[in-house]
Design goal:
Chain A has 483 residues and is of the alpha+beta class. Chain A has helices at residues 56-68, 168-185, 225-244, 290-298, 304-315, 319-325, 329-341, 345-362, 374-385, 391-404, 408-415, 423-436, 438-445, 450-462, 469-482, and strands at residues 6-17, 54-55, 72-73, 76-77, 80-83, 93-96, 103-112, 115-128, 132-135, 144-148, 155-161, 197-207, 217-222, 252-257, 262-265, 278-279, 286-287. Classes of the chains: A alpha+beta (483), B alpha+beta (94), C alpha/beta (484). At the A-C interface, loops of A face helix 9 and helix 10 of C. Strand 2 (54-55) of chain A pairs parallel with strand 1 of chain B.
Chain lengths: 483, 94, 484
């Protein structure tokens, strides 16, 4: 069979760290990047006799996230212990939710080739994060490892999608929208580079038309949107080729090797896991009254989905544009403020997604770190619109705005960059140029239209590019035909 | 009925407890004995009974999200069998 | 009578009226310890100097509120800052916590004086204190017999007059059975009444901290000091703590006492049964109403209890992995071997057996038949009790099927050993308060009567216990000195 004879089936398991001040079960700080084992205590380090007490904010955030993902919020939910041994898991069990997750049956809409597609959310449940192992070199070559428990007990929400995605790009869009939805809901800072957003992908393939799912492979170690996309593409291809070769796929966990751009099997013969989930006896259950859910719902801000519809309907922007504009609440706010000051949404979108993103990426800054305000950008766009500066000049001014934070008008003034649109000034200059180049004038009159280009060039040269080129063209035409 | 040695080895692996041969044989017998006793539960009809996973009629026991800080690392490491640079040292994972 | 032979409430009066000092009391106890400890072996850690120092400081202040100046012991599974806390296990042989169990902290805030940490069955799993990894404790009434367990050191030391009271933990019978075997009062409160913070548990949903004393009055005093909501234990309950001493009234006319026929059937020693039946007659003579009732699911209680206890223990014991504290086998060159070998070396046979049983009961393919089934039986047991308590105030039964057995008598047969919980495990399953009080002697060994109360109704249970104690003199007997 050929690749196009197969259908790829993808589901994602996403972990987001909830941005509480403290950990889920103790008063240790939930701050990223502290010295090893300085945000730890007997509770999160699993010392004898220590007991957990649930952080209320974790539940509040979970409800918020669930509502943002259109989930049902359970009226009764509980915590279970998931038993396994690993040095980053001090109690040898992870507190999680097994059969009664706090959120279930939700969905999120993404856009595939401009058309909406609904991705089901099977469930989202609360659990605690594990610590970190530091190896001397790679995990397989190290002589020993060091254990840092700072991350132990950081509250997580694990969001499990339905296997509703059919291509790597969809999975990426799902993850991007999930990220922005969590950001808008205000429950996580979703920094992939710091691990506060993590994603595992379940990938299988099946012949077109087949109803049953193929053998599922879980891919771990996906550290960016790009690696998610690449890993799925690679893994799907690997599975198709294996099937074509008559191999039987095994259900397994594979890791994405970023360097070699391949997936590799993690445990080959290691025992099948048996997590022995059971209700955690140290944590009473949760009973979530409707009023609590309703009050969270009332406090919910505009979410990416609503914002995207608004921008498409109100401004006629494309699905692609709006997905970028809603990548974070701050980015959208920048756009909205800019449009409020300069009512040409498409131009604003183009500048933000073009120049602004280019500069932000180059200097590795967030929109919140941008030194100029949305109103400053609006001012610049207005100057372009009025012909006060040329498109090319605007780019230079933008670069200066980005570097110094100065308003466009000030930069134009300081550098004398204002476009010359004054007709009398320009006509005087044109007349001089015409006098100095009688041969060219002759050619023009003789029908050589190109000669006009030379004359415009001379004006632009004389004005160091500040002359309004459209206007110069018109005026030259006028002068020559008048004579 | 006694468990098989393989069954004992399986639970011992899950529980991460090394057993010598005589312990395996002993536990195969003893676990079998106790499980056999526990099998009397099977005769009880419980289809419509809700499992009781929490005995107290208590729910929603919360803590405020306020940082109370962490103890000194020295205290946390006072009982550590092996440590390095403020981290617990363990033999290689694989 | 020597000071160490008195009760807490008697000593409290002597201290407050300046007729003695805390130092004198401690010294009296230390003398007794010097006499009997070599045989009884109730202490894992004896804090002689610390106790004397604390007593002298207290005597300087000269104020004796609450339990001030009274020497006590803690089962060695209560975390004590700066003091070794071993759980009588090789695994924690050298473990020194830097935090205190809440119950221990409350006693030290009440100025009670910690004399030491008491022997127990390893990780509170066992019923004879022979399963201590260090040494067995012996019954002060007969050194060839066990003191019961797992809080055997706590009970034996109180019975022997080495300390005035102690705290233990009880997940099936671990306070009440040793109290019964040693002829003292042992109370396991309602689940949630006392904080479990800092107590090294074996089965979280069954464990409860409780009190061992020489009489019911002392029991009420000590319970008062430790009961109440602790924000650090999610399963401690925010119900108001009643005045337990005020509930001790001898008049129990009209009190409705039920005795479940299932607790007087086969397997219970005839003489033990006779003692409790006699006690019921005493209650009748005091004006109580006595009826036989049924707890129909009793025959399923012990297997269900065992499955839950072992399942929870299997998870709770996972933290002993040799990484952050406790024993580690340094010969292992990879993590998996380090875990297995450290745990293989650090745990005794019974702990291993329970972990394996619990792991099995939770594992794929067995969960429904064992663990889940046990949770359903747990509900049925609770329903049984609820039904009886619709019409009765207190349930009475024997605490243990026999008097204290001889050392070694139950080694080698786990099921026989597990049967020790048969009369008491249900109360833990249902979260009910239970207490054992002396009610007679068989073969010159004390017999305990088990009283079970409604959830959080310790006052009624204590009242019933107090009335019986006032009408009898069993509690006045001491090892080697029977009061008849």
């Amino acid at each position: 069979m050929k690749a196009y004879d197969y259908e790829i089936v993808i589901g994602l398991e996403v972990h987001v760290e909830l941005k509480t001040k403290t950990k889920i079960f103790c008063g240790c700080s939930n701050r990223f990047g502290a010295e090893p084992n300085t945000n730890v205590c007997p509770i999160c380090s699993g010392f004898p006799g220590a007991l957990p007490v649930l952080n209320q904010q974790v539940v509040e955030y979970a409800i918020r996230a669930g509502l943002a993902l259109n989930c049902e919020i359970a009226s009764y939910t509980k915590f279970d212990s998931k038993n396994y041994f690993y040095p980053d898991l001090p109690n040898a069990y992870q507190v999680s939710q097994y059969d009664r997750p706090i959120c279930s049956n939700g969905y999120m809409d993404i856009y595939v080739d401009g058309k909406p597609k609904r991705i089901g959310i099977n469930r989202a449940h609360i659990e605690e994060d594990a610590g970190k192992l530091v190896h001397q070199g790679s995990i397989t070559e190290t002589a020993y490892s060091l254990v840092d428990l700072n991350r132990c007990g950081v509250p997580l929400l694990e969001i499990v999608s339905m296997p509703d995605m059919r291509q790597a790009a969809e999975a990426r869009q799902y993850l991007e929208k999930l990220r922005s939805t969590m950001l808008f809901a205000g429950v996580s800072d979703c920094k992939m580079e710091e691990g506060s957003l993590r994603c595992d992908a379940n990938v299988s393939v099946r012949p077109w038309g087949e109803q049953a799912l193929g053998t599922r492979v879980e891919i771990k170690n996906l550290n960016s949107f790009r690696s998610l996309e690449k890993a799925i593409e690679y893994e799907a291809r690997r599975q198709m080729e294996a099937l074509d070769d008559g191999e039987v796929l095994v259900q397994e966990t594979r890791t994405w090797d970023e360097e070699k751009q391949v997936t590799r099997s993690m445990r080959s013969k290691e025992e099948a896991q048996d997590y022995r989930y059971f209700p955690n006896p140290d944590l009473p259950p949760l009973v979530i009254p409707r009023e609590w859910v309703e009050s969270v719902a009332r406090s919910m801000p505009e979410l990416p989905q609503q914002a995207q519809l608004r921008l498409m309907e109100k401004y006629g922007l494309s699905a692609y544009d709006v997905s970028i504009l809603t990548s974070s609440p701050e980015y959208l706010a920048f756009f909205d403020r800019c449009v409020a000051a300069f009512a040409q949404p498409k131009a604003v979108a183009n500048w933000m997604m073009g120049e602004l993103n280019k500069f932000l990426n180059q200097s590795n800054l967030q929109i919140t770190e941008c030194r100029f305000s949305p109103e400053h950008l609006a001012e610049l766009l207005k100057m372009i619109d009025e012909g006060a500066v040329s498109g090319k000049m605007a780019k230079d001014i933008f670069a200066e705005m980005f570097a110094s934070g100065k308003p466009a008008a000030q930069i134009v003034k300081e550098k004398g960059l204002a476009q010359i649109s004054d007709q009398d000034t320009l006509i005087a200059m044109i007349e001089e140029v015409l006098k100095a180049n009688p041969k060219v004038v002759e050619d023009y009159r003789g029908g050589k239209q190109k000669a006009a280009g030379f004359l415009v060039g001379q004006i632009m040269k004389a004005t160091k590019g500040q002359a309004n080129p459209t206007l110069v063209n018109q005026l030259i035409d006028k002068c020559l035909s008048a004579e | 009925m006694a468990l098989t040695i393989a069954e004992v080895e399986h639970v011992a692996m899950l529980a991460r407890i090394s057993l010598n041969q005589s312990e395996k044989e002993q536990f195969a017998l003893e676990l079998g004995l106790v499980l056999n006793y526990a099998d009397r539960l099977k005769s009880l009809q419980t289809d419509n009974i809700q499992p009781l996973d929490h005995i107290l009629p208590v729910s929603n026991v919360f803590r405020e999200d306020v940082v109370i800080g962490s103890p000194d690392r020295e205290d946390m490491f006072a009982n550590a069998p092996m440590a390095e640079d403020g981290q617990y040292r363990v033999p290689k994972i694989i | 009578m020597k000071l160490n032979d008195l009760s807490v409430h008697e000593l409290k009066n002597l201290l407050q009226s300046k007729q003695t000092s805390s130092e004198e009391i401690i010294k009296s106890c230390l003398e007794r310890i010097a006499e009997v400890e070599a045989e009884v072996k109730a202490f894992i850690t004896l804090l002689e100097d610390d106790a004397l120092k604390a007593a002298r400081n207290l005597d300087k202040k000269g104020e004796y509120q609450g339990l001030a100046g009274i020497p006590y012991g803690l089962k060695d599974n209560f975390c004590t800052s700066g003091i070794k806390t071993t759980c009588a296990s090789r695994m924690l042989e050298n473990y020194v916590p830097f935090y205190d169990a809440t119950a221990a902290r409350r006693l030290s805030e009440a100025d009670a004086i910690l004399m030491g940490k008491m022997n127990m069955d390893e990780f509170a799993m066992g019923n004879s204190t022979e399963l201590s990894a260090f040494f067995p404790t012996r019954n002060p009434w007969d050194h060839n017999r066990v003191p019961g367990g797992s809080s055997g050191g706590s009970a034996a030391a109180v019975a022997a007059g080495e300390i005035l009271f102690s705290l233990g933990t009880d997940s099936g019978s671990s306070i009440r059975q040793p109290a019964s075997f040693c002829g003292v009062v042992g109370l396991k409160p309602s689940y949630g009444r006392v904080s479990r913070w800092g107590v090294i548990g074996s089965a979280s949903s069954l464990d409860q901290v409780g009190v061992i004393t020489r009489d019911v009055t002392d029991c009420a005093l000590v319970l008062q000091a430790i009961a109440g909501k602790d924000p650090s234990d999610s399963t401690s309950v925010a119900l108001e703590v009643p005045d337990y001493s005020a509930s001790l009234k001898a008049d129990i006319k009209g009190l409705k006492i039920a005795y479940p026929r299932e607790y007087f059937q086969a397997g219970i020693d005839q003489h033990v049964k006779a003692c409790v039946m006699e006690a019921l007659k005493t209650y009748e003579s005091l004006g109580a109403i006595i009826d036989e009732v049924s707890l129909p699911h009793s025959e399923y209680a012990l297997p269900a209890f065992l499955l839950i206890a072992c399942a929870e223990a299997s998870a709770n014991m996972g933290k002993y992995d040799g990484v952050r504290f406790g024993l580690r086998d340094f010969s292992a060159d990879n993590v998996v071997d380090m875990y297995s070998q450290s745990r293989g070396l650090g745990f005794g046979t019974d702990v291993k057996r329970r972990i394996l049983l619990g792991t099995h009961a939770l594992s794929a393919g067995y969960y429904e038949d064992y663990y889940l089934k046990a949770l359903k039986v747990r509900r049925l047991l609770k329903n049984d009790f609820d039904k009886v308590f619709e019409n009765y105030d207190v349930i009475v039964a024997p605490t243990a099927p026999t008097v204290a057995f001889e050392l070694g008598a139950q080694s080698g047969d786990p099921l026989t050993m597990y049967m020790n919980d048969i009369l008491t495990g249900s109360t833990n399953m249902a979260g009910l308060p239970g207490m054992s009080i002396p009610c007679g002697f068989v073969q010159e060994m004390p017999v305990g009567m088990h009283l079970i109360g409604k959830p959080f109704d310790e006052p009624t249970m204590l009242k019933a216990a107090y009335a019986f104690e006032q009408a009898t003199s069993f509690h006045l007997s001491r090892p080697g000195r029977r009061v008849r």
